[in-house]
């Protein structure tokens, strides 16, 4: 929560998986500033310098066995009566959710396109291996119908995923 006191906000809270907190100069905190407002207008976004008293990076959390650091970190963070000036508010009070949605949708499209690129590279490696892997004289893995089916199914699924992502991107472009 963030409670307004004079020309400041006092922030209290606890967050898991704060991306890239390790070594960051500031955090963008989404905190409830008006618990009585409608659900989409309760929160605001506030810039909190990480050297502010009360900001505590508790630890980096291991993700898939990797503790991570810097940009690759996901940290547990506590806000213990962190006081920041009112001018650290991003946008207007109560607009935190709207600000987040403006950024998150296009960001998710970006991630999906990157993952599709990774899929494309894995597909290329799969096809190359199937064409090179000899099973016997004059026979390679790619000659087998089951392998051909798997390759075709993979390509169809990748094409479907790509079209869904492009459709989502188009909708964001047209409708916001």
How does this model look, in words?
The chain is α+β, with helices and mostly antiparallel strands. The chain contains 2 helices and 9 strands, in the order E-E-E-E-E-E-E-H-E-E-H. It has 2 domains: 2-94, Butyryl-CoA Dehydrogenase, subunit A, domain 2 (Beta Barrel), CATH 2.40.110; 103-175. The strands form 3 sheets. The protein has a 4-stranded antiparallel beta sheet with strand order 1-2-6-5, with no helix packed on it. The longest helix is centred in the middle third of the chain and has 37 residues, at 96-132. The chain is elongated, with a radius of gyration of 24 Å.
Radius of gyration: 24 Å
Can you tell me the CATH architecture of the largest domain? Beta Barrel
Number of strands: 9
Distance between the termini: 29 Å
